[in-house]
Structure formats: C-alpha cells, structure tokens
Predict the structure.
Amino acid sequence: MSNDTTISDIATAEHGTSLWKDAWIRLKKNRLALFGLAVLTLFIIVALLTPWIAPYGYETQDLDLGATPPSAAHWLGTDIFGRDLLTLIMYGGRISLAVGFVATTVALLIGVTYGAIAGYAGGKIDAAMMRLVDILYALPFMIFIVLLMVVFGRNLLLLFLAIGAVEWLTMARIMRSQVQSLRQQEFVEAAVSLGLGPATIIRRHIIPNALGPIIVYTTLTIPSVMLLEAFLSFLGLGVQPPQTSWGLLISYGAETMEEFPWLLIFPGLALSLTLFSLNFLGDGLRDALDVRSSKD
Amino acid sequence: MALLEVKNLQVSFHTRNGEVKAVDDVSFTVESGKITAIIGESGSGKSVACYSLLGLIPRPPGKVEGGQALFEGEDLLQMSERQLQQIRGRDIAMIFQDPMTCLNPYMTIGDQLIEPIVFHKRISKKEARQRAVELLEEVGLRDPGSTIDSYPHEFSGGMRQRVMIAMALINEPKLLIADEPTTALDVTIQAQILKLIAQLQTKRDIGVIFISHDLAVVADIADDIIVMKTGKVVEHNDRQGIFHNAQHPYTKKLLSAIPGGTKTINPELHQPLITVSNLNTWFDQGKHQEPVKAVNNVSLEIRKGEILGLVGESGSGKSTIGRSILRLVPITSGTVNFDGTDVTSLEGGDLKNMRRRMQMIFQDPYASLNPRMSVYDTLAEPLLLHGIETKASVEQGVLKLMDHVGLARNFVRKYPHEFSGGQRQRIAIGRALSTRPEFIVADEPVSALDVTIQAQILDLMLDLGKEYGLTMLFVSHDLAVVKHIADRIVVLYKGEIVEQGTGRDLFDNPQQEYTRQLLHSIPGQALLA
Amino acid sequence: MWRFIGIRLLQAVPVILAVITVTFFLVRMAPGGPFDSEKAVMPEVKAALEAQYRLDLPLPQQYLAYLGDLTKGDLGPSFKYPGRDVNELISAGLPVTAELGIYALLVALFLGGISGVVASLKPNTAQDYIPMSLAMIGICMPAFLFGPLLVLVFGIYLEWLPVAGWGDIPGDKILPSITLGTAYAAYIARLGRAGMLEVMSQDYIRTARAKGLPEWQVVTRHALRGGMIPVVAFLGPAFAGLLTGSFVVETIFQVPGLGRFFVQAAFNRDYTMILGSTVFLSTLIVLFNLLSDILAAWMNPRLRAQFGGR
C-alpha cells in the first residue's frame, strides 16, 4: 500500500461497532424494552395530537347521559357528567406526561451541571457542594411538596419546579460519581498528557462515557415523577379542575368505583401502562448500556 | 496408582455466540507427594479444567461434556453434588489468586477457618479453633491466638494468602489445588508464599496442582509440568524435561518469553535529558492524618537515548515518579528539568508544548483507551491537536502510525473493545508516538498481558525506541524484565531511592540489603543462571 | 462505632433545625391570616385570638418563641380545633399510624426479602422472572390505585374483607397493611435480588463452595449478610415513604392516623397543625434515615473498624 492512501481506499476496512451501536443491538433483542418504547411513543404521539384527534371536546358534557359503561359511542364509557372518558384520559395524559418530562428535564439540567462541576472541581469545592446535597437528601421532600402546594396554592408550574428540585439530587450524585471515576481513568490521564484542555477532555472523553448512566437514570426518573404528581393529585393537592391528570381521574374513579368501576380501571390502566413502559425501557437500557448501579 | 487421573476431559461453555470448547480432550495425572504445575495463558482452559473437577464452574453456561476424573479410583465427574460436597474442602482443597477478594469480608478469619473442619469432621467449635490457631502459627501468622478474631481487611495481601492456605489445609486434604496463588502479590511476598507452599507440601506429602501463567514462578517448586494452550495439553513432562528438553514449539515459545540476559549498555549515553531534583509528591489524607509520602526526596537523572528502569514493589512510588515528571499529579516540591526547561513551572501553551515532547504508555490497555473512540479517533486527536498533520493529511498519518506499531490498516474504524490486550497496547503505543515525543514513561506496559504477548510488545518498544531515538523511563515491578530492557536501573522502596546502577552492577554486586532481597525473590533463579 | 453514631447525630441537628426554620417561615408566608376568612369577627376577639397564637409579635420573636416551645416538646395549638393542641392530635394518630406502618413493613420485608433472594438464586429462569414481574407490577401500581382495586375485588365483589376502618371489625387491618406494604415489597425484592446477585458473584462465595458447604449454607452463612446491606440501607427511605404513603392509605380506608390528620390539616389550612406535624414527621424521618444508615454501617466490619471499636 502506498503512503498516500486514505481510509476510503482500503477496500477491506472493517466497520467497527461502537458501544452505542452495540447497546442498540442489545436493546433490540429485549422485547419488553421494545414494547415499552413502542407504547411510550404511541402515548406521546397521542398526547401531542389530542386536541385534534380526541373523539369529543374536553368540556363537552351530557348531564342527561350521566355515567355509562363502555359503548360504541363512548369506547371507554362516560363519567357522571356524561363526559367521554377516553377524551378525559387523553387530556389527562397530556398533563401527566408533561409533568413527567418537564420535571425530569429540570432535574436533569440542574443535577448534571451541578454534579459535573463538583466532580471535576474536586477537593474542597466538591466536598462543600456534596455536603449541601447530603443535607437536602435528608430532608423529607414529599412532606415539603405537600406543604408548598398548601401554602402557595395548586399551581402547575410550581409543581414542575418542586418535583424537579427534589429529583435533581440523585442525578447530581450519579453525575458526580461518574465524572470522578472517569477522571481517574487512564484514558483521561492519557488525554491530559497529550495536551488536551479541560473543555475538550470533558466534551470528548468524559461526557460520552458518563451518558449511559444518565440516560438510564433519566428514564427511571420519569415514572417516579409521574407517580409523585398522581399521588398529589389523588390527595387533591396537585392538578386542579378544570385541568385534569391521570392521578385526578383515578381519585374521582376511586370515589365512585362501587357503581362505575370503569372510571377507576381505565385511568389506572393508562397510568400503570405508562409506568410499566418506562420501567421496562429503563431496565432494558441499563442492561444494554451495561450500567452497573445499585441505585434503584 | 495416581492420586488423580484425568482422562479425556471435555468442558464447553454455551454462550450467546455459540459453543466454546474451553477444555478439549485433556488427560493428565497428578501423583501424591508431588507438585504438578499446569501452565497456560489466558483462555488456555487451565483453571476451567481444575474447577470442573469439583463442580465449581458456573452451570449453565459451563458443561462437562465427557471424560473421567478418577480421584483415588472414584470418578469425580459422576458424583452427585452431595458427594462432591463431601470431597470439597475435605479431600481436595483450593486456594485462589486474589486473597483480597477470596475471604468473606463480613466474617472473622477464625469463623471462616473453622468452617470446613466443623462441617466435615463435626468436631466442637472449641477444638476447631484450637486447630486453627496451630495452623495459623504454622503458616507464619504472628500471634494467631488474638488475630484469629480479626476481619480480613485487617491483614495485608500476603497474610491473607497465608490464612487461605491454612483454611485449605485445616482438614489435611490429599490434594491441594492452587490457582495462581501468588500472581496478585509483590515479588518478595511471592517468594515467601512459594516457599511456604513447597514446605507444607513436603511435610504433609500431599499432591498439589499449581496453576500459573508463568513458567518462571513454578521453575523452583514444580515436579511435573503440564503446558496447556487453547483447551488442549500440548506437553506434559517433569521439570527437567520441560526446561531443558522442551518438545512442543509452544513450550519453547513460552520459555523464550521468560526475559533473560542483561542488556549491554551503550557507554556513549551520558548527556542528561531529564534531571529530577529533590522531588516530593505527597498525597493529603485529610486534616488529622499524615500525608502519604508517595515520592520522598527523590533525585535522579535520565540520559538522552537511554532506557532507565524504575523498579519497586507496590507502594514504592515508582508510578508516581513517572506521573510527577509528566505533570499528571501535582507535586509537593522539587524540580524536574527537561532539556533546560523546568517542567514544574510551565503553564498554558508552554505546558501544552512540553506535553507533546513527553508521553506515557499505561499499564492497563483496557482502561487507557477511551471505549467510545475508534482507533482513527484516538490516533487522529493528538495529530490534529499539535498540528502534526492537517485535516487533509491526517488519515494518512493515522495509517502510517498503525503500520509502525504493527496494526492491520483495515482495523482503523474499530473500537477498543473489539481488540485483544496486545492489540490495544499497540494502539496505546501508537497514540504515545503520535506526537513525536522525545521522552516516554512506560508504566508497567506489559504486566497486564499474556507472557508471549509481553515479549512481542517489549520487542516492539525496543525497536521503536531505537527508530525514534527515544529516551524512556520504564517502570516495572519485574526485575527480570527491567534487567532485560534497561540501560540503568533505579531501585525504589517506600518512596525513596535505595540503590541505582547498571543492570550488571546491581545483579552482580548489590550494595543494599533490600536490593539483595529483591534479587533473591526473582522466581526461577535456577533458570536464569 | 460510637463516634460514627455521634457524628451522624450531630449532622442530623442542622438538618432538623433547617426543617423547622423553612417550615415555619413557609407557613407564615402563606397569603392571608388564619382568621381572615372567618366572617365578621369582632376586632377585639380577633386581637385576643392573635395574641393567643402569638400572631401579634414580630416574626423573629414568633420564631424564637416557637423554638422555645419545641424544646419543651410543645408543638403548639391547633387553629381549627380550638382547645386542642398539635401534641394531642399527634398522640392520638401516632399509635394507629405506627401500627399500620409496622404491619406494612413486615409485609414488605417478608414478601420482598423472600422473593428477592429466591429470584437471585436462579437468575434468568422462571424462578427469577415470576417474582420480578410481580415486583414490577407492585412498582407500577401505586397505592392510590392498588388500594381501591383491592377494595373493589375483596371488599365489594367478593365481600371477604371490610372496606374501611381500623380496629372496628376483625380483618379491617388487612387491606390497608397490604396496600401500603406492596410497593415497598417490590422495591425490597429488586434491591435484594441485585444485592444478592452482586454478592453471589464474589470470589469468597467460590471459596465457600470450595470448602464443601452445601448451597443453602453458602447462601445463609456467606451471601445473605452482604446481600442484604442495600435492603437495610433502604429501610430509612422506605420509612419516609411509608409515612407519606399513609396519607393515601389512611384516606382511602378512613384510618384515623397521622396521615389523615395531615391531609385534613392541609385541606383546612390549619397552619399550626401543618407546621407541627411537618416538624414532627420530618424529625422522625431524619432519625429513621440515621438509624438505617447506622445499621447498614454496623453490618460492614470495615466501616465499623473505621470508626473505632469492633
């Protein structure tokens, strides 16, 4: 071979399998995770398109009709005001999913940045930053969120922020331990000795390797956030009418389940199915990315 | 009758990628009163063969496909799990490679020691404890009467291995299987443990299977040697036969991979490239504790074009010296002068420039390559960073580097996890050479590799060193390797220099007690002479 | 060990203080005074009421006075139930909630511990998949859904068990305990399985097998202790979860415990009651976190030795 060949000239050049590709191949073999991904994608698409595809208007009531079991006109039945349950679940899903994704994004942004700074700075800065996290960890946040909702009224934005503010702690811990262990890896030392600057090292050598655990944990945070929202809404401390969410629908359903069990079962099914999908996907990603983590 | 007679043993692993024959038609015998060594590199099936005899391989995926293993005339492979339990720990006992992980951290060593004897012989705990104390004394533990109630983490690696040996011997087994029992230990400790095993074996007149990757280690103690390669026995002979009359080419290759000889030095090398003066690198342990003095007041000189060997056991600070010179760890005080420039005070662009001139090759090629970067990305990064190649020419630069370190060009798009250890180390060497450095720190560059690969990589480093006119600091725990490759040798102990000189000086006429002890510990003395 | 406990206790003090402070000022920041809504209260009555609740004092003084009361163990009077104080309500609710919590924890430890260990012994077989699938259902079926469903099936359709109450009819404690315990059983099962799998792959397990110990002894003597440490460490957070979970379960099953009081207080905007119970519950949670930390550390001889003494 002559000296000025380029890679494209090497006919036999084998295409390597990057770890991402490898993970995707493994994920594709995990049927439960794929099922989770499919259900989730469907729910997200439905949530985005709800205003256009919902069978009835959100505020359409039919008081004469009242609560009816599932029928051809109302696939999942109607509630005591004669509202179409499928429509309610679709609109409720928008809120529940939005809370899940937005609050998790808040947690992700705060946690990853905070953890990365602490992990990379090390020493006293790190110790001080993680001390704060430890103290916050010890606080009983659920009670605080209830308190916040009581004091400041039931406000969706506040809910996003409050839940996000709780969940960032674990994210920060994971990111920090990732950065810290990666920093000590020999390939990062090699990068330093090559003369690369800190920004390049973080961008090219640390972030791509820390991404796996972060993705996994993010996937597993969404369901716990949705659960938190549903919990608050069930107690009447979360989403307020006229808005609705799955937690609120379950709460109403539980009140009337003796006569109208479908009002409990269908919203419950929607919530559980979403939580299932996210957890299966998260577990699948954990296996595929081979993330060793005792955090559950 | 032989104590153990293995006939046509076949073991395979059923993995996602199909069936792998780990042990393929293996036969051998072990005599009572003799030490039989099984030698092989990783993947040779040496451990699987022994573990499968006792039903200790994970099943699934492992499966014994056929063969016989007659222990005192009874076939171990036909026994039920219950019958095997009666044999394990009573008639056949085992010791393992890593004494740090093989003892239960949640139990005192006393509780762990008496377990086999209480279980198999049904004697009282008190009696068992008495027996355990005696044995601990015999294997050389100080004050066993009180240390018996300590937890494993309170012992050093060597002491833990002594505890493991005592535990294995507590039921006076007929056969002891030792799986790389000294690989995780320092050389001086290794010598002690080897001696202890040989002593205990002679005294009890039992059979021992000694599994190792290293022929030199068993050279002094083995009676018979079995050489295995990819699941098959390639040669089986007594010690004399293997060392002086090897038949199989693979055995010969293993023998030639044992580093021997002393490098003849080039007298013209005396102009210093690097001068380290009064270097201190201490690590803080928190407010209330003394700092760890990893490097303590070290001064040394590295001459242009030479290979300086830095030898020491774990905790000697040998790696830290290399990293201090390269500014990879913050130093406490002292200066490092590189060709007229004080490296310790450089910042910014000057430091970046200096980094180009000094590179490092790491011990573990599995950890020293970014798993998410292909060979191309890894090698192109430094080439572009230091403007050695332009965007247009970088592909050729990468391919040229691959040629130099002996990597096939068609692997250029592959990722580290798709390579073997030796190939990875070649990539790492290519990366170090990419900046066209004048000086390289090689930190145990071959210790993580199989013996035959070690020899290849050492040769590659020597050739490239000559070709590039490199100066090298070669850090190693292995005196034989250093003697083979280095012009001059510096011996370190607990962060301080004990002695330095040419290989010949040190080996023929060591001045310090510690150096003598180190030299004495090199396994396979008889062979090297 | 005592040093470790001492250090942890000292660390808990600022946390508890922070809880008290934040809660106090948050509650005081709430828009509107507690008696504003009462229609047409005579000004002098209002002033008397405010004096009784110390609302006439400047905020910092109110805070200090409140801290002073706390050191005496006095959590203050209730706004909504004049004549009753927070201590009284808590002492009425606490035994009920504690009983419910203990039953739920027993359910969780028993179901979760056993299925976690069983699953870990034969990974990737039916023995693993079945309990782990059940655990997944337990995690994805929140108590506020699971509880009503249980009531629907066992209370209303089958009529096997009472649908509500606590200690009134025999058997009425079963459903609340199961509802509250199930989610934690699921978490414990997953944690226990992961912990056991980790331990069972350790070298010292191979050592134990090489000694000839039968498998059940390998598991009970060598693996269980290390494998259960994550579960023990989880008990603290689990306790916090059980307390907040009791808000829901006590509401569903009309159990007269702390949780229901808390939720009612939240609805009634009974500020002193919220303040008092938040302080009380938070302190309890912080202390339980501490306890489970200490227990987990005590189980690890290495950590034990680090802090002196065996």
Q: What stands out?
A: Chain C touches chain A through 52 residues (CB under 8 Å). Residues 100-257 of chain C form a domain with the MetI-like fold fold (CATH 1.10.3720.10). Chain C has a mean pLDDT of 82. The longest helix of chain C spans residues 86-121.
